[in-house]
Amino acid sequence: MTRRVPRWRELRPLLQPRGLELDPVKRAHTLSDLRAAAGKRVPKAVFDYVEGGADDEISLRRNRSAFDRVEFSPQVLVGGDIDTGTTILGEPAELPLVLAPTGYTRMMHHAGEPAVAQAAAEAGIPYALSTMGTTAPEDLHGDNLWFQLYVWRDRGFTKDMVGRARDAGFRALVLTVDTPVPGNRVRDIRNGLTLPPRLSLSTLLDGATKPRWWWNLLTTEPLRFASFDGDGSLAPSDIGAKMFDRDVTWTDLAWLREVWDGPLVIKGIQSVRDAKKAAEVAADAVVLSNHGGRQLDRGPAPLELVQPVADEVGDRLEVFVDGGIRTGGDIAAAVGLGAKACLIGRPYLYGLMTGGERGVTKVISILREELERTMRLVGANAITDLDRSRVRLRA
Q1: Which UniProt keywords are listed (predicted)?
Q2: What is the Rg, in whole angstroms, of the alpha carbon atoms belonging to the chain?
Q3: Which of 41, 121, 126, 202 has its CA at 20 to 30 Å from residue 17's CA atom?
């Protein structure tokens, strides 16, 4: 073999190193990247609140591992353009995706719920505000907002909350039914999580490495449950134990239908049996959910319920699913098994913790790109093409 000295014009294209990108939002290529960045920007107790589950976190792990069983069956030589658009509760959506209700959102980033709502509106997807949110319904603006509701012991207060959501222009009501009592979230107990966070020795030491988070917390409006705790005097541990109504039954749904005439979504369904009951009380949709593994440990993985529930009641109501969704491929899988749309909570909170509204927008963008790529690879041009001919769960 004859060797030679390379010429400069041949070396020059090889000697162009990539610039160093310091912005964690721009640097992120996956949700895992944003999760890693988020863990470096907020105190441990805050990150653990987002990450944690109940008890031994078995349900938390099962939610994600269920997606390992997904197998795609691609159809090739399909051609054509990709359209991720669909309808959710009769409204057009750019993706089969809803940003789920999450509590204490301004604790993750001072921009809080308004930043999430703005990102959702720009992406053309719904966003659900939590009763436990840090922004009041009257102060939130967006194109397709849902309001998540817990039924309180004081039914007059519950009725007032529903009326406020209606007057503020919220389009759907999401009733959470898997929280008769708070789950045993061991990470929060060990971290001594409170709202607002208390300045203990451990939080001060942790906060020394997260000065931006503490500065934003201390120089913006105090954290509070904005929908009902005007002066911020209620402790989080007191709310679920003292104020949520653990005696709510299916018969109470008739009363709720009297005070809310818009779309009604029941969140926290974990069996075909209860999905059938939801259809009988004329719910418009159910969310197959175990509260992200944060309530009953060892509950079923929601993804594994999608096909049997869709087969049983999919012709009477819309079937949504949450829990463990981390990629656009996961969304494609859930839709292919029979879900109308997916809800995500932790994923967009990773983005919010990393970069506020820009971070949430980045999460949606990543999921959109991954969904489009998956659809192209399995030969599905439209969301309606995602079906069980292309998706199944391995035994």
Answers
A1: Flavoprotein, FMN, Oxidoreductase
A2: 22
A3: 41
